[in-house]
User: Fold these one by one.
Assistant:
Number 1:
Amino acid sequence: MTVGRAGEMVWAGEEQRSWSRQLQRAPLQTGNYSGRLFRLGPRPKFHREEVGVGNYSGASSDSVLGQNFHRESWFRRDCGAGLRYVEVNKDGAGVSWCWAMLAAMSDPRPLVDLTPAQLSALVRSTVSHYEQRAEAFRAGTQDHDVSQNVDALLRYLPGPAPQRILDLGCGPGRDLSTFVARGHAPVGLDGAAAFVAMARAGGFEVWHQDLLALDLPAARFDGIFANAVLFHVPTQELGRVLRELHRTLVTGGVLMCSNPRGPDIERVQGLRFGSYLTLETWSSFVTAAGFELIEHYFRPPGRPREEQPWLATVWRAL
Ligand SMILES: C[S@@+](CC[C@H](N)C(=O)[O-])C[C@H]1O[C@@H](n2cnc3c(N)ncnc32)[C@H](O)[C@@H]1O
């Protein structure tokens, strides 16, 4: 259930009553919310008008945000761990419009707490792992068949080609070529200077940036391809990084991620840091950053689950 669609169904008879029953099971929480505030137009169209982005506190008094909000009409719906959809109904039931707030509650707890010095040491050693074997990595991965993941991104993009795609952690640029061949307009991003040089030599636009210090323009991309890269982000920073990715996508843009999965552990192997999460834990981080899951699958295809170490998830930016 997305925020938009949930909002569109807010006051639909029995639907509303059953929602209210569900919502009453959990006590209303007073607190701080951050997210996007919408005003929903009248039924049946319910167009959404965004009226604010930022931090709000609410539900502790009759006047939430200082105006127009009345406590007796607060409802909330859990849309997955970490994400709450809060509806605020002006002046009681039966109104023709209401306010809705997407409240991104605090991120799930990190698996490991790291100091800033530890974080930057992990980034440095992970990137240097790739720098040291850049040529061998290119030779070893240039024929990898990731068409299943490419197709999963492309089929959900919000419009026809050319779409603007960020290939996050693009490495030597194999998939940049694929996106161009499919008629799209990709930009690569990587932290390893050797890979940036290789991908640029292929004629692509590539940004040299650290995943933990991204500097991305707002609403710049229709899709993000994050193939085998976000597992390098410690869970302590994952929510923040995912929100940066959300911000650089247009509303309705698509995020495709493929990560090695595991029993919720973080570890360093050789020089490389990685987090290995279950579908549930991974999803709780991405959902809290404002995405809705479209599809997931395990890779490689056609094998028993224990021989499928990769978890692919495809998300829509709300
Ligand atoms: C396993 S490789 C995947 C490369 C490519 N996406 C592919 O599918 O072949 C991980 C990539 O993430 C990049 N990377 C790792 N940590 C990074 C960081 N902190 N900032 C930017 N890039 C990083 C590496 O340089 C490398 O290109």
Number 2:
Amino acid sequence: MKVLVIGAGPAGLVFASQLKQARPQWAIDIVEKSDGQDVLGWGVVLPGRPGQHPANPLSYLDAPEKLNPQFLEDFKLVHHNEPSLMSTGVLLCGVERRGLVHALRDKCRSQGISIRFESPLLEHGELPLADYDLVVLANGVNHKTSHFTEALAPQVDYGRNKYIWYGTSQLFDQMNLVFRTHGKDIFIAHAYKYSDTMSTFVVECSEETYVRARLGEMSDEASAEFVAKVFQAELGGHGLVNQPGLGWRNFMTLSHDRCHDGKLVLLGDALQSGHFSIGHGTTMAVVVAQLLVKALCTEADVPAALRSFEERALPLVQLFRGHADNSRVWFETVDERMHLSSAEFVQSFDARRKSLPPMPEALAQNLRYALQR
Ligand SMILES: Cc1cc2nc3c(=O)[nH]c(=O)nc-3n(C[C@H](O)[C@H](O)[C@H](O)COP(=O)(O)OP(=O)(O)OC[C@H]3O[C@@H](n4cnc5c(N)ncnc54)[C@H](O)[C@@H]3O)c2cc1C
């Protein structure tokens, strides 16, 4: 069996590594668009302690402590400049995205999986289909610009808010969510530490605020300085660091109503991306990768495996999309709730996803199934 994976991000890497472990005799190649050094983004949160939670990709590394993960149990929501402290409900693990991706790539290479960098595949005609039994499209939201097959063209929706992903040396010991009124405008920060020296700091605001504050007309540095002033109470004199390639943008949701076509199958953000306010994208990438490994290891052939995979994966990614969309829309319409008392505001925040079956149970159920091979 020969497998080609397009994209060396968490989805493609966890899939390749887990499949190689289950079927060492199968040949797996990965092609990656970037040069192998750059990884976009600062830190992400993942569920649980490495080694104890199979949806946490650090669980598949030999020495996860080298990545200096940070554990977060508390949640702080600031509204009307009043902090409300709560529990996150689950233990969360903050980690640097770059370190995680590099460690997963090292793990794949140590298992004999080849990774070819600076090798973007974008068109159907570029796919070496005759050489492989299965081609896994794990190219993230970049899948939007790929033309592999009409059947796997994504539905693309853009969020209404503008957002930007900064890093900062200010250390946020809890998951922080800050709603700040600034003149007529509302800015929202999502912040938490992901190493003992750095935190993620994602900021969002409405399109109207973005235009009124002239953020689109400023240099990256001026924009970071402006936002740092808005959140000076939280940043305590620390600045915001901009990463090239991570400017202001609208969140892109990619969705599909199918997972495979012929030999091609989708994984990770390429299959379904979901708003960062629920922080589940990497977790979903891991669980869906495990479902594909399970199907390939238990079904008689590739077509049967892809049918079985789709039956399991589609309801899960649709649930993920429901949670992510509900959350995104709550943030996009927050101006309607800013007048609430802090207690009412927290209640509304908590209720935003309550109409849907909970994600942790759905993830745990699918993982239990996937890991029985
Ligand atoms: C602001 C923000 C905050 C987030 N916070 C969290 C969080 O806290 N927790 C969480 O779990 N998730 C979070 N996410 C989501 C998470 O980053 C993604 O869900 C996750 O990276 C998906 O992994 P992936 O492998 O599918 O895609 P990616 O990580 O995007 O990897 C895709 C890879 O494919 C490569 N590629 C692209 N096109 C091609 C091509 N044509 N040929 C070859 N290679 C190609 C890319 O270079 C990249 O290396 C966040 C996302 C954002 C935007």
